[in-house]
Design goal:
Blueprint (H helix, E strand, L loop, with lengths): L6 H18 L14 H5 L5 E7 L5 E8 L12 E9 L8 H15 L4 E7 L3 H9 L3 E9 L5 E10 L1
Length: 163
Amino acid sequence: MAKPEDSDSILQLYLQFNEDRVKSGVGDAHYKTLDGELPWKRTLSDGDCLSLIAKEKGGRIFGFITLRVPQFNPFNKVGKLAEVDLIVVDQRLRRKHIGTVLYEAAVSRMKDIGVTHILLNVKIGNVPAMVFWTKLGFKKVSKTDYKRADGVEEQTMYMLKKI
């Protein structure tokens, strides 16, 4: 489980994640709250979220995943739902199943609290993420077009999986 003291290491992974998004053409994630604090930093001590980390023996964090059980379930025909907020693996260690291990560990914990489905969203154009989640068995359920607060228009694909 991630702890508040892990936040500096997680920040480095987040910055790498955001840089990858910009390079891929998907754009800046803009995961900042009005006070400038990154939302995952709050989730490290939030009882409604599960944040897991992948850590070397020396203590360096090279991956993390955060899931939350939302208060509102937009899919009324599924049971209890959890949503993947963010998953990041150090770019030098990708394609080594670290993301899969983090996801499976999180799913195991979600099952323990009665979650039956996992929901996530992927920005249209983020091909590596779409491939990753499809390999894990997620199915596309809807697409949303929206305009962010900074005026940038984006498209998001929602994906769902029964666990």
